[in-house]
Amino acid sequence: MAEAIEKVSIIISRGSLEGVYPGLIMANGARMEGIEASLFFTFFGLDAVIKRRMNNLKVATVGNPGMHIPTLIGALPGMSSFATRMMKKEMEKLDIPPVGEFLTMIHDTGAPMYACRATVDMFHLTKDDFCPEVDGIISVGQFYEMAAGGQIIFT
Known about the structure:
Helix content is 38%, strand content 16%. By secondary structure, it is of the alpha/beta class.
C-alpha cells in the first residue's frame, strides 16, 4: 500500500496563465485534502505574486504545443488576448477564482508562499513589489530545508 502524501512543496516557474494555475490548483487541492502545502515562485513564475502583474497574466500562444495552433497564428496580434479571455471565461464557469483571489484563498488555508532570492535579486525586485501573501524571500537552500520530508512538485 502506498504511503499517504503528507507534505508538498510546489515550484511555480512560468508566468503565463496556463503556467501559474496548475500549481495554484494543486496547492488548493492539497490543502483541501489536509496535506501541508507551500508555494515557491521563481523566474517568470514571480509574475503570479508581483502586485502589478498578477491579475494581468496572459495565455502564451506562441510556441505552446498545448494550444494546437501553428506558431504563426499564435503570433498574430490579439491572439494571446483572445485566448486569455476564452480561458478566463471557461475558468469562471468552473468557479476558479482570478489569480489574486486564489492566492489569498490558498494562503488563508495556511499554505506559505515564498519568492526565490536569486530571481528577486536578478530582476531587482523588493518585498514591496509582492502581494501580501508572500511570506518571505528565501534561497534555494532554505526552500530545500522547508521542503524536507515532502514531495516537490514542479509546474
